[in-house]
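Q: Sequence in, structure out?
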Amino acid sequence: MNASAGSEDQPLVIDGRTYRSRLLVGTGKYRDMNETRRAIDASGAEIVTVAIRRTNIGQDKDQPSLLEILPPNEFTILPNTAGCYDADCAVRTCRLARELLDGHNLIKLEVLGDEKTLYPDIPETIKATEILVKDGFRIMVYTNDDPVMAKRFEELGCIAVMPLAAPIGSGLGIRNPYNIRTIVENAGVPILVDAGVGTASDAAIAMELGCDGVLMNTAIAGAKNPVLMASAMNKAIQAGREAYLAGRIPRKAYASASSPIEGII
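A: Exactly. Output:
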């Protein structure tokens, strides 16, 4: 849950488990599995998300499994439904993930509505959410930056809401900070920015707005030096959180001297 600005920090808690890191990372788009592991180590992330329709975690016995380099005893594996464009596909994918991961119920739900922008299909996401909640899944849901829909997903039983900052993989940063801040202020569950982060300053801004965490993949994996960028994101998340807790000075339209002018001789 969000701590208020100026207050002592509280740990990130997802599905009853406490995490030190507020950075969640994806596992796709790296050159090889060795780079994947090195970047994730540099990020400090404890939760890693895996696209079940694109990544082998045991479906293909003849191919290397991602779980060989990211074992579940070291990381919380967060299966996601990337590549699903309707509720039925998303539900099937979640059930496959649960079977492959021995009853694992924590999932990241995304149901896409457009191949070009990868914006979420909200009606289909709601439909999938309703089915999966009844089926016992613990859902972290990808949605747009609409405060009304964010609250709606919380009411439907999602344990975390993940509004986009900008289109997936765009690197545009937070396009609508007002909406993100409004979502945070009205939330009763963790809010994590998901999609659109391009560099460390974007991650810091998300945390300064009061988000509980940030999930990213392309910003790290697509960098010229993914391992170094992962390290930068690690630091940015920590700096942004501390700045939020410290409470920034108000913005002013005029100067304010660092040293008071009263008493000057």
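The first strand starts at residue 12 and ends at 14.
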